[in-house]
Amino acid sequence: MDIQLKRWVEEYFDSIIRNYGMKRLTKLQSALAEFLEREVGACGMLLEVGFGIVLLSDRLHFEEAVVACISDGTDKDVQRAFRERGIHFIVADAEFLPLRVRFDCIVMSDVVAYLDDAYEVFGKLRDICHPGTKLVIATVNPSWMLILHMFEKLGLKGSDGPHNWLSHEDIKQMLSLQGFKVSKVEKHFFKSVQLITATPLIERPKPEGAKVSFVIPCYNEEENILAAIDGILKSNLFDVEVVVVDDGSTDRTAELVLSLNDSRVKLVSYKPNQGKGVAVRRGFEAASGDIFVIVDADLSVSPDEAMRFVRPLATRMADFVNGTRFLYPMEPGAMSDIRFFGNKLFSVAFSWLLGQRITDTLCGTKAIRRSDYLGKISIKEKSWPDFDLLFGAAKNGLRIVEMPVHYKRRMAGKSKMKIFKHGLRLSRMILRGILEFKLKPFLKRA
């Protein structure tokens, strides 16, 4: 959890209540109130995660309701209005709701953009749903990101601070992975609000028993490798192995791995250094699990978050899980501006090539089932295996889903990324993709 971001969110919600009060609806809240009146109308037990002002608008009828807000700055008049309407007000973080009852309707009012971990929150909300529950989400339309930034610069609106710019596609995919089915999306380019309605699946898919192999390709990572291995072995997964691929390190990386003397840890070591693509391929060859998960040794993505890549494969909700670093705010210094721009450019290119939205191509954390990799996908690129894996998944018709991760500065050591050298290689991969996915199909049709 980002403590600094959480503190800012608390202060931001306090300032809204203090400066603007809770007497009138914002544009987002007004759109949400109208949407609720039209799509829900009335319900029994209701939960609003947010300010609670939407429930005071008389646009939605309910028997009993709970408002959970991270701010305790609600004035006495509003709290009295809550009590008169049968609304229970609690001060609670959306990520740690102290609730066990099941609700008929759950409303998230202008909250998703400020969640440190929206994916985790959706999973917890699923636990307080019954089969007929409706989840309604209102958040800012990310298409307005540049416009809202410009308004802030001109002083026409206050700062919204660091937050997520989650599109309805991002939210829909996270909800799906957490056991919801999106039934309606209301979004217009000319409106700054997007509204989403979802219902829980009658039965959440149960994970199949599977052995999981976490493959860690590394080169000179003596300062990080033990922490990376320890983070994986401390997981709740029963049947797990760690395959460390020492790609020609000149430091003590291999020596430290061998010193663990743990049967769950395998070491593949060779010289000279040949590149991450070779290391991942060698790691997959040595792995014995049913599911392969690639984890970078630099701890820029925590082992805890890498565990999330297992469930979509074990439940058959996905065939290939691609990590994305661009849905949550990054830790300062985690990625340079030129790398950020380059990643965005390649993501746009790959979305066009593959015919589906890919927000991050080079996130080191990816997962695939053994049966979908062996004999079907070949890693040819020496430096970066990401494109070969994405190309292979798409060509074999695998269901690709993205898993949001929090991207942090590497714990120690230096990045192996060489901007211009590797940029040229990545550009060649784009040209290869154009040939395979655009030109060849066109020539076949001609």
Layout: helices, strands, pairs:
Layout: H1 3-20, H2 27-39, E1 42-49, E2 61-69, H3 76-84, E3 87-91, E4 103-109, H4 118-126, E5 129-140, H5 145-153, H6 168-177, E6 180-187, E7 193-200, E8 212-218, H7 225-233, E9 240-247, H8 253-259, E10 265-270, H9 276-286, E11 291-294, H10 303-306, H11 310-314, E12 320-324, H12 337-354, E13 366-369, H13 370-373, H14 386-395, E14 400-404, H15 419-445
Parallel strand pairs: 1-2, 1-4, 2-3, 4-5, 8-9, 8-11, 9-10, 12-14
Antiparallel strand pairs: 5-7, 6-7, 11-13, 12-13
How many beta strands in the DSSP annotation?
14
Taking all residues together, what is the mean pLDDT?
Answer: 85
User: What is the CATH first-level class name of the largest domain?
Assistant: Alpha Beta
SS-based class: alpha/beta
The number of distinct structural domains comes to: 2
Q: List SSEs in N-to-C order.
A: HHEEHEEHEHHEEEHEHEHEHHEHEHHEH
* Largest sheet data: 7 strands, mixed
N→C terminal distance: 54 Å
CATH superfamily of the largest domain: Spore Coat Polysaccharide Biosynthesis Protein SpsA, Chain A
Secondary structure tally, helices: 15
Query: Order of strands side by side in the largest beta sheet?
Result: 3-2-1-4-5-7-6
Q: Name the overall outline.
A: globular
Low-pLDDT sequence parts: none
Q: In the CATH hierarchy, what is the architecture of the largest domain at level 2?
A: Alpha-Beta Complex
Rg over CA atoms: 24 Å
Strand percentage lies at 15-25%
Helix fraction by DSSP (H/I, runs of at least 4): 25-40%
